[in-house]
């Protein structure tokens, strides 16, 4: 299966379990790989046949910037569900990074893979 990807999508969000984290917005980075058959849009050369990565990005920014979760694990699950449910994707691999969360590490986070049931 082909992949459509979004790399290093940065979104400011309220995320974390500590009191100080509940008072500030922090940058999160999303790397998303979505399984999608690109043969139809390749043949038609029509944007309406594609998995529109701009539309996916816009939806994720909208959702994440309004979210208020304690755990990146919870946010990653919700974002994966949005991609699967709203964009007709069969499989998604999502990496959610929280830069600067651990001293000495560029970022920490989770990588999940989910498929349609």
From TrEMBL:
SUPFAM superfamilies: Tetrahydrobiopterin biosynthesis enzymes-like. Pathway: Cofactor biosynthesis; tetrahydrofolate biosynthesis; 2-amino-4-hydroxy-6-hydroxymethyl-7,8-dihydropteridine diphosphate from 7,8-dihydroneopterin triphosphate: step 3/4. CDD domains: DHNA_DHNTPE (cd00534). Coiled coil: none annotated. GO terms for molecular function: dihydroneopterin aldolase activity. InterPro entries: Dihydroneopterin_aldolase, FolB_dom, GTP-CH-I_C/QueF. Catalyzes the conversion of 7,8-dihydroneopterin to 6-hydroxymethyl-7,8-dihydropterin. NCBIfam families: folB (TIGR00525), folB_dom (TIGR00526). This is 7,8-dihydroneopterin aldolase. It comes from Agrilutibacter niabensis.
